[in-house]
Amino acid sequence: MDEQQMIGLARELAEAKSRQDVTAALALCHPEMTLQAPAFGTTAHGHAANERALTSFFRTFPDYAVEPAGDVGHHGTLACWGTARMTLTGARFGEAPNGLRAELPVFLHFTFRDGLIASERFFFDLSELCAQSGISTDKARHALFGGSAELGAVGSGR
What we know:
Helix content is 34%, strand content 35%. It is of the alpha+beta class and 158 residues long.
């Protein structure tokens, strides 16, 4: 798969996710697709798990949209970067958010297999999402990862 094909698939995926169109997003993904979001500590493997993960993500961030800014491909992998805009809803992260739309730099790493996306790693700063959403990073980390919310905390956690 050449770089332009990889970029095309990644941009189609960005468009589908920006529409919260889980069906269209999954159509671009290999049946054994792995989706990782290290900031949330989540990994989904296979179409069923990815469908659940995306549905949950869009329930939490119903206006999610990503704007690609750049990309580079090499030997079947693609790195992309851009801006994600999303409003945190509900209390999934331990407390009610402020309802404001966050704007975050994002970095994505993709691999490909059989003409489809085989994996995606979605990187962003959880602390920045929390700060813009008006919630405590410590409480969010505790809600996401359990254990002591103070582990690794610096300052107020906001």
